[in-house]
Design brief:
By secondary structure, the protein is α/β, with parallel strands linked by helices. The chain has eight helices and twelve strands. The protein is about 40% helix and about 20% strand.
Length: about 240
């Protein structure tokens, strides 16, 4: 198994490389974003460990560059930053996992093996559902030819819903995946943001695609005129 480590903490990166080699991995190192992106584009890897704060090109830009080259190698973000927005941004750009420094080496190895087993299925850059399109590289959203301006959290919520379109997702699932399992606010934040999102992607277009399933959760569906809403469903 071949792994690329992109991290400017030279001592830490070398320590991790020695440990992974002892586990039977083939490991390459890069200590800045430019050389890391070049290595990821030019060589096949099973997993990439990518630091967020890098010289020359930060981890976000490296990850964006990797996905723009249609390279779907699993990426584990390895960073000292642990804010929820940092995690959300990384996942939005195509990261597969996130590990905060300091970390357990045993946990790191387990995460790498899990990502390698999962493999690298091709992921579409643009998610489409009816006339709604989300470009995960430019982080832009359109309904037909009309651009829709979203906040970072509204975008993260829509991205999650589009990945789960046609399925009912509970409030707790949304909280865990969009706000993070350590979010300490109330569950009503989901209802508030659903309202924000509905007023941007549905109401101006006379559609009802973001539905509240009473007692169960929410579901995003293809284009449907607002007048066809069933009494068992809710637009609130």
């Amino acid at each position: 198994m071949r792994v690329l480590i992109v991290d400017d903490e030279v001592v830490l990166a070398e320590t991790v490389r020695r440990g992974l080699r002892n586990e039977g991995f083939v490991v390459d190192l890069a200590h800045d974003g430019v050389s890391g992106l070049r290595a990821a584009v030019e060589n096949p890897y099973d997993v990439i460990l990518l630091d967020l704060m890098l010289p020359l090109k930060n981890g976000y830009d490296v990850l964006r560059g990797i996905r723009e080259h249609r390279i779907w190698t699993p990426v584990l973000m390895l960073t000292a930053k642990d804010g929820e927005y940092d995690q959300t941004d990384a996942f939005d750009l195509g990261a597969d996992d996130y590990l905060t420094k300091p970390f357990s080496f045993l946990v790191l190895v387990a995460r790498i093996r899990a990502l390698a087993r999962r493999g690298a299925p091709e992921r579409p850059v643009v998610l489409a559902l009816g006339s709604l399109n989300l470009d995960s590289v430019s982080r832009s959203v359109r309904r037909g030819d009309t651009p829709i301006g979203l906040t970072a959290k509204e975008y993260a919520l829509l991205y999650y819903l589009m990945r789960r379109h046609g399925q009912v997702v509970s409030k707790s699932e949304i909280l865990d995946n969009v706000w993070g399992s350590d979010f300490e606010g109330g569950g009503n934040v989901v209802e508030v943001y659903m309202g924000y999102l509905r007023r941007k992607i549905d109401t101006p277009f006379g559609l009802h695609t973001l539905t509240t399933i009473r007692g169960m959760g929410y579901m995003l569906t293809p284009d449907r005129p607002a007048a066809t809403v069933s009494p068992a469903l809710s637009a609130e």
